[in-house]
Every structure is written in C-alpha cells, then in structure tokens.
Amino acid sequence: MKIYALKMKYELHQTTFYGWLRDQGLIVKEQTGYVVGPNGADMMETLTDYFLDSNGEIAKRTQVGVIQSQVQTLLAMYLDSGLPKLYAPSKKDDKKVQLESLAADLNRVDQRVVILEKQILILINQLATTEVHA
Predict the structure, then answer these.
(1) What does the record list as coiled-coil region(s) (predicted)?
(2) What's the CA angle centered on 10, arms 6 and 13, to 5 degrees?
(3) Could you tell me which of 59, 48, 60, 58 has the C-alpha nearest to residue 2?
(4) Chain-centroid distance, C-alpha 23
(5) pLDDT tens digit sequence for 53-97
(6) Is 45 left (phi over 0), alpha (psi -120 to 50) or beta?
(7) N or C, which end of the chain is more exposed by having fewer CB within 10 Å?
(8) Domain ranges within the chain, ordered by starting residue
(9) Which residues contact 2 (CB under 8 A, 6 or more apart)?
C-alpha cells in the first residue's frame, strides 16, 4: 500500500506523518519523489513509475509502498510516537459541530413549541370561561 493511500485511508496528518517517516529514516525525499530510507528496507519498497513530462520526455517518479503485512506495525509505531496532530482535521469534525449546533437549535425549538402549546391551552380555557359567562 502506498504511503499516500495509507495516509488517506487512516486520515493521518500529512505533515506529521511524512515528517515522522523522514525523521525515522524510513523514507528519503529525492528529486524523483520519495524512496525507501535506510531504516525502511524491511517494511517498505520503492515504487517506480515513468511518465511523459511537459517537454514530452520520459521522466521517472518514485513513491514508497508499505508491504501489506507491515501496515499495522508501521501504524502502531506512528501512533506510539507521541507526536501531536497524528490525524488530519477532517470533515467529520465539521459535520459533528454542525450536528451539535442543529441539535441545540432543535432543542430550543422544542422548548418554544412546549411554551406555545401551554399558551394555547390557557387561551382555550379563557375562551371557554368567557363563553360560559356570556
């Protein structure tokens, strides 16, 4: 699994994750992209891709993939790193805030409906009392 796909799947904070991988010597940034670092040989592999650049010349691009059996080990090492901001801020957080706001609005509306129902009952009683006396 490419480290980018791993980052996306587990919603990891990109700057923190890639920085940690570099600091641990698991990946190294080169002109063509990322390659396996000196400490990543047992759990990673360099993936090479060729493409046509803007000049029409064949260019090389490298990425790092994590050996599938080592994904959970790598994730555990990252999560145990003690670094702040392990996870990316997500849309889930925004949706949670929106949901909490909507729940609060709903609660206020519900309270207002209860008050209005009580006021209607009072008015009905007053009308009934007025009709009896009239």
Answers:
(1) 92-119
(2) 90
(3) 48
(4) 23
(5) 899 999 999 999 999 999 999 999 999 999 988 888 766 666 677
(6) beta
(7) C
(8) 3-88, 90-134
(9) 47, 63, 64, 65, 66
